[in-house]
Amino acid sequence: MASRLNPYLSFDGDARRAFEFYQEVFGGTLALHTFGESGMSGTPQADQIMHAMLETPGGYTLMGADTPPGMTYTRAGGFSVSLSGDDDEALRGYWEKLSADGTVAVPLAKQMWGDVFGMCTDRFGVPWMVNIVQTQS
């Protein structure tokens, strides 16, 4: 198996809702495993997500989890999940869904380097960058 790099997102009890949302945005197959399934049934965290993995038809893989019991949730800073490519329709569709009920830092618009680019933070606090490569004519 070849190595791959993909984001692993941390949540404070809302990983299930976040990953169900990402499945609505990107489509694909979602696997959710709870702390209860891993031997923590009967605890307050039993229904929280120990591991989530979304594999999309477009080849994206997102993984993540709720903060494990006994650990303090800390929102990671200094990163964004970046989507880029030349499929204008698909990327604009992702942008619309990800930015809905979120915060737009840079509106999706043509930039000085020639591509269409935007930055937003989705409703779950995850920052996204979308870059739509413009073909040279």
TrEMBL record:
Pfam families: Glyoxalase. Coiled coil: none annotated. CDD domains: PhnB_like. InterPro entries: Glyas_Bleomycin-R_OHBP_Dase, Glyas_Fos-R_dOase_dom, PhnB-like. Residues 4-130 form the Glyoxalase/fosfomycin resistance/dioxygenase domain. Transmembrane segments: none annotated. PANTHER family: PROTEIN YJDN (PTHR33990:SF1), PROTEIN YJDN-RELATED (PTHR33990). This is VOC family protein.
